[in-house]
Design brief:
alpha+beta, globular, 4 strands, 100 residues, 60s Ribosomal Protein L30, Chain: A, 4 helices
């Protein structure tokens, strides 16, 4: 998981990402998102909706096996993050890798 954490942090620092359920939904609906990162132990209704919509839109889904508080800390945010979208990966090669 540390490899995923490193790649996520690099994408956040050098790429373009959006936070917030509405913003992520908008970018997924408009096909601007390249990937969606979801905290698997986050709010079940939000996680389920984002997984479903991302699968329909054929957008890569990256499942973060922590909770929303841990994902928020990884993102450098002082609040919990259930989901965020990667619009541009920056220097990260997160879009090419597969995480389990």
């Amino acid at each position: 998981m540390s490899d995923l954490n490193t790649d996520l942090r690099l994408a956040i620092d050098t790429g373009k990402v959006v936070f917030g359920n509405r913003e992520v939904m908008r970018t997924v609906s408009s096909a601007d998102a390249k990937a969606v990162v979801v905290a698997m132990n986050g709010k079940h209704d939000i996680v389920g909706d984002m997984l479903h919509i991302s699968e329909i839109s054929s957008i890569k889904i990256i499942k973060f096996n922590g909770n929303s508080i841990e994902l928020g800390a990884l993102c450098g945010k002082p609040f919990s993050v259930n989901v965020f979208a990667i619009l541009e990966p920056g220097n990260s090669n997160i879009l090419e890798k597969e995480y389990t």
